[in-house]
Amino acid sequence: MVRGYSRSNTPIQAIPLFSQLLAFRFLPDDYIFPSVLKACSSAKALEEVFDKMLDPCVISYNAIFTGYAKCSRPNEALSLFRELQVKSLKPTDVAMLIIKESTALIDMYAKCGNLEEAICVFKNMSIRDTAAWSAMIVAYATHGKGYKAIETFEEMRKEGVQPDEITFLGLLYACSHNGLLDEGWRFFHSMSDKHRIILGIKHY
User: Fold this and answer.
1) Of 17, 36, 46, 81, which is most buried with the most CB atoms under 10 A?
2) Using alpha carbons only, what angle is made at residue 87 by residues 82 and 93, rounded to the nearest 5 degrees?
């Protein structure tokens, strides 16, 4: 439906449909995002719709933030993130969204080559879940900071946060690109032996 609207004469209709998808806690994939972004581009709707909202809800913030993240527009995303922090939304909703969007910022800054900003966002997070820790580990790994990736993993374990398959994907990438073969094998074997994580093709 989203794709159909994005190709129609009324592409703006894809935006509320996308918001409904998020409201039902469905995770959009790489098939949906291009259609949403196409709809926003062709109708110039994303910012216009958001700016016309008198009282944007958490779902609305999430939709536009996701758009900024996918378009690699960190300055706009960070500005929106700061605006969200001063809004009088439900604390639980804000906490969940801030964690999610902080993680997206870490990933976005790392992909844009700005590791310092990614580190800054991570350090300023009051709550860090598995996704946030994993994003920081992957950020260090992709920037050739293998030892920092491992150090971050050790801090994660001290905090009592459980790693997942993405965490180890970052660790294995860090080890393989920094010549840390022994450490890489240790992490590889600990996935199934210690953490009961099912190995995927990317881990090999």
Assistant:
1) 36
2) 95
Average pLDDT over residues 37-60: 62
Residue-wise pLDDT tens digits, 121-167: 899 887 889 999 999 999 999 999 999 999 999 999 999 999 999 99
Residue type, 202: K
Structure tokens given for 157:
């374990």
Give pTM, 2 decimals: 0.61
Amino acid at position 154, single letter = E
Sign, CA dihedral 152-111-80-31, equals: negative
CA 30 from centroid of its chain's CA atoms: 13
Amino acid identity of 138?
V
Q: Cβ distance 180 to 172 under 8 Å? A: no
Amino acid identity, position 75:
N
Neighbour tally for 4: CB within 10 Å: 12
Q: Which residue has the tokens 């920092």?
A: 148
Question: Tell me, what DSSP letter sits at residue 201?
Answer: G
